[in-house]
Specification:
single chain; Umud Fragment, subunit A; eight-stranded antiparallel sheet; four-stranded antiparallel sheet; 5 helices; elongated
């Protein structure tokens, strides 16, 4: 990268032979030997910063971004202060899948971000009763019980039945007794979803990626 910066300035300001001397000579003549060397160094650093920003900023704002877990709503699968990498690209190409863990804007305060698991998909009806979740859709008009044994040890308390619009998702935390989720604030809109949880970066002992659960349908 440093050599690339020197070649850039050689092209812009260099004269004479094809080596680095003309660049230094130009700045030395303009500012003197000491200041000239400092100017060359500063300009090279600026070039590195510009090139790095051109690469990093699009990745940060359009592809992935970091996220820290706050609270106990996803325990034991995600703990407080764990560092996650969020994939923002996938949902530009496809819709969220049942069982994926997503980060979204809290409907009651869009400045806050929540992490939950997708339970119900657009157009479905989700029913919670007797500690179980039943999903009704075109494939299962009479309903089918959601098998969550891959990530859930306990049961889901409460009683409600919600039909989702074509742009809505029903989300819940894995720690059902400690989770503020769609049972309280209702379904979330697709536009409020930031992305899916892709990688756990910290702690190092729990680094890994996440697969979609194998449901019974």
């Amino acid at each position: 990268m440093i050599r690339w910066g020197r070649l850039f300035f050689l092209t812009m300001f260099g004269r004479g032979s094809q080596h680095e001397g003309p660049v230094d000579t130009f700045w030395h003549r303009k500012f003197g030997p000491t200041i000239g060397s400092v100017v060359v160094f500063v300009l090279e650093v600026v070039q590195i910063v510009i090139i790095s920003a051109a690469i990093i900023i699009p990745i940060r704002y359009f592809l992935i971004q970091p996220f820290y877990v706050k609270g106990a709503s996803m325990e034991p699968n995600f703990y407080d202060h764990e560092y996650l990498i969020i994939d923002e690209l996938s949902y530009r190409l496809r819709e969220p899948m049942r069982g994926e863990i997503v980060v979204f804007r809290y409907p009651r305060d869009p400045s806050q971000f929540f992490i939950k698991r997708v339970i119900g998909l657009p157009g479905e009806t989700v029913e919670i009763e007797d500690g179980k979740i039943t999903v009704y859709n075109g494939e299962h008009p009479n309903g089918i019980e959601l098998d969550e044994e891959d990530y859930l040890d306990g049961r889901t308390d409460g009683k409600e039945k919600v039909t989702l619009a074509l742009n809505e998702y029903f989300v819940m935390g894995d720690n059902r007794d400690q989770s503020l989720d769609s049972r309280d604030f209702g379904p979330i809109y697709e536009d409020d979803i930031v992305g899916r949880v892709w990688v756990r970066g910290l702690p190092l002992s729990r680094v890994g990626t996440f697969d979609v659960p194998d449901y019974n349908f």
